[in-house]
């Protein structure tokens, strides 16, 4: 994979992180191993270590991708940025966005549809894993660039968050959140799939990924502390929620559970937000239903491209398709764990009008 080799080589050789400059509160920061070592450090759930930057926690890959984005990303008209907390429906929404925005070029029932040939993560790259030189080169055959990331809104560059002088916006942000208990449960299983794959395939720990299993209790403790990637999750969700209320033309706030319970209504809502509503002709052709079917968990998980191979060294494509059900957290968490997450969520969101 084009962007994987870059990061794999970086971590394996333990070379210093790419020298670069970014501006934070008018202070120039040189991104290097020395700078990285100056940041608060903690154990992560999917990474051996996470580092606190601008109030949130990141692994080394995420942090380098964030700095690159802050320095070099320049939005174009029709760009779309999907933001999620890890394991909140990222893969599913990537597929939906790709199918929705490319429905004129690729009919959902096309046997050679790109989503049947490549993974959603290949078609909608993570900004964390994309080199600045690839911001354009990955989309040479497309009029719309779609990126995914886990970056909190406060960390995004002004080129993304600010509007033009006329109040227009040249990049749309779609934020998808999920029930906190379900998100944690999915993250816990994902972390252990990584560790199992690294051990079984005899990979050397690379990309900063966690190389040993994590217990439910340890993962829960770290999650509540917020030292998982882009954590604390409550702060990330709340920031995007508030932004969606203040600038509804810029940020669309979506819920995983609503996407599951009313996929057709949510897909139409998403299409309208992106300025690509379904025409009467498309409605007659049942285009909404066809996109929903193409991107369903059952359909996507059965494809060979999603059930074999590896997205990253130690991260199998199949690890992104575990269950996809609502309420899974209640089957794994003790009553005490569930109550604690509910209490934290209630305390964090109090007064915001947001309920998960």
Can I get a quick summary?
The protein has 356 residues and is an alpha/beta fold.
Task: Name the features.
356 residues, disordered N terminus, sulfotransferase activity, Sulfotransferase_dom, four-stranded parallel sheet, alpha/beta, 11 strands, EC 2.8.2.-, Sulfotransferase, P-loop_NTPase, three-stranded antiparallel sheet
Oligomer: single chain
Number of helices: 19
Q: List low-pLDDT spans.
A: 1-27, 198-203
How do the helices and strands follow one another from N- to C-terminus?
A: HEEHEEEHEHHHHEHEHHHEHHHHHHEEHH
Main beta sheet: strand number and arrangement? 4 strands, parallel
Distance between the termini: 36 Å
The CATH architecture term is 3-Layer(aba) Sandwich
Strand content: 5-15%
Number of domains: 1
Number of strands: 11
* Helix content percent band: 40-55%
Name of the CATH first level: Alpha Beta
Indicate the mean pLDDT. 84
Can you tell me the overall shape?
A: globular
How would you characterize this protein structure?
- The protein is α/β, with parallel strands linked by helices and 356 residues long.
- The protein has one domain (4-348): 3-Layer(aba) Sandwich (Rossmann fold).
- Helices cover 45% and strands 12% of the residues.
- The protein has 19 helices and eleven strands.
- It has a four-stranded parallel sheet, sandwiched between helices. A three-stranded antiparallel sheet has the order 3-4-5. It has a two-stranded antiparallel sheet with strand order 1-2.
- The two termini are 36 Å apart.
